[in-house]
Amino acid sequence: MTDSYPLDQYIEDLRKITAETADEDQVLARVGPLAQRLVADRSWLQPKHYRADEVQGFGVHLLHEEPDHSLAVLVLSWLPGRGTPAHDHGTWAVVAGVEGVEHNVRYNRVDDGSRPDYAELEVRHEFDAAEGELVCMKTGGIHRVTNQTDRITLSVHTYGCHINHTQRSQFDLATRERKEFIVRVE
Ligand SMILES: [Fe+2]
Q1: Nearest to 132 by CA among 99, 169, 166
Q2: In the chain, where does DSSP find H-type helix?
Q3: How many Å lie between the centroid of ligand 1 and the Cα of residue 84?
Q4: Any residues with CB less than 8 A from the CB of 61 and at least 6 apart, and which?
């Protein structure tokens, strides 16, 4: 029997968890399995979620956001061969794969953070995240995502705050420049 777990239930559970704890390890440990149930349910999935922005390289589709921008749940659709620059989120993040395989590179920041427009990163590890698999990051976690397949991939991203409201960073690996990372939401 399929485990029914609609979006409304997920949002209700997110509210409960974040009301009970601000500890990000606990939030990630509790939200992760629920995000996996949500992506297995798929009742929230619509054809428009496959649309992606040719300039940006990926599409961002809002499923839910609280009035204060907290608890943002987004569907991201990734064009073949495209991806993000290295970036952080300015909040905690739980990513659950829906369709296809997304390649992740996780980074450590190795400079002292004293210059707002400069960051040195080193690769920590690389891995592929497939359907039903999780990528969980606390505030400050840095990664880069690419779709190395020949089809659009989809994942559901849950954040402690909508990523366009956290002043989060993108990092140019070649020039070591840091600047704010705003995404275009469909
Ligand atoms: Fe990310």
Answers
A1: 99
A2: 7-20, 24-41
A3: 8
A4: 48, 49, 51, 74, 75, 76, 77, 185, 186
Quote the tokens at residue 149: 């397949």
In angstroms, what is the span from residue 1 Cα to ligand 1's centroid?
A: 33
Identify residue 60 by its one-letter amino acid code.
Answer: V
> With contact defined as beta carbons under 8 Å apart, do 94 and 28 qualify?
yes
How far does residue 95's CA lie from ligand 1's centre (Å)? Answer: 8
pTM: 0.96
Q: Give which of 167, 19, 2, 149 is closest to 77, Cα–Cα.
A: 149
The full set of domains in the chain, from first to last, is 7-180 (2.60.120.10)
The tally of CA atoms less than 13 A away on the side-chain side of residue 4 is 1
Q: State the first-to-last Cα distance of the chain, in angstroms, to the nearest integer.
A: 34
pLDDT digits (tens, 9 = 90+) for 96-113: 999 999 999 999 999 999
Closest residue by Cα to residue 74 from 131, 10, 22: 10
Per-residue pLDDT tens for 106-151? 999 999 999 999 999 999 999 999 999 999 999 999 999 999 999 9
3-state secondary structure (DSSP) of residue 16: helix
Ligand 1 midpoint to CA 145 (Å):
7
